[in-house]
């Protein structure tokens, strides 16, 4: 009983924050401020910290498979949330299709960014350290006719026009999590029934959102790469705006899955569900 009360209090507080109108309208501005001013944290953080190593387990376990973690937690929450209200698999799949669209967009942009880096880049061979080295930077000799994969396999250095895919992914996942979980607060205010599994999934999504923001701050503070990270974040924000602030506003149809909560945050539907749970 005690643990259930703690779960209810925590999820209610988180749902109230994420469902707040000001938070929903200005979260992307907060994320933009993090992207712009986050690299300034490199002046204060210690570069001997465990987070200053790319081999840290948080980067290896979560960052390299960030989209997978987001799909598992957000997809489970969307399906359980929509199915518990409408009891329709097709309706739940329609809401889940937003994840499929975002995933397809992410894959397309990653492919284009790799193509851009391959097209604009060149392979270089670093010379051994010697008296000709200035400022601690080794001299590089251009290697003609090498592709990026061949260059890296040979242990050489590839230099090209780069956009940070990690920052792009983290920004897109943060905005997607904020959008998809923001419907839980209005649902609770309308008197919707929320069992422990749904609340646990919602809380896991909130914790994942906090983790993505933390990892984003770590990347900006310990591995500042301007303007590649800023471009990656801008691409993530533009992807979110094009989907959630553009296409999804057209309403549910055969070509549009609709916005989160559309067809679910209905007082009559929720009241009927509430009455059915009471009678049981």
TrEMBL record:
Entry keyword annotation includes Transmembrane helix: yes
UniProt keyword terms in alphabetical order: Endoplasmic reticulum, Membrane, Transmembrane, Transmembrane helix
A cellular-component GO term for this protein: endoplasmic reticulum membrane
Subcellular location(s) per record: Endoplasmic reticulum membrane
GO BP of this protein: lipid droplet formation; phospholipid biosynthetic process
Family annotation (Pfam families): FIT (PF10261)
Parts forming coiled coils: none
Top-level taxon in the UniProt lineage: Eukaryota
Any one GO molecular function term: coenzyme A diphosphatase activity
Similarity-based family: Belongs to the FIT family. FIT1 subfamily.
Its job: May play a role in the formation of lipid droplets (LDs), which are storage organelles at the center of lipid and energy homeostasis. May directly bind to diacylglycerol (DAGs) and triacylglycerol.
Name of the protein: Fat storage-inducing transmembrane protein 1 homolog
Organism: Xiphophorus couchianus
Gene name for this UniProt entry: FITM1
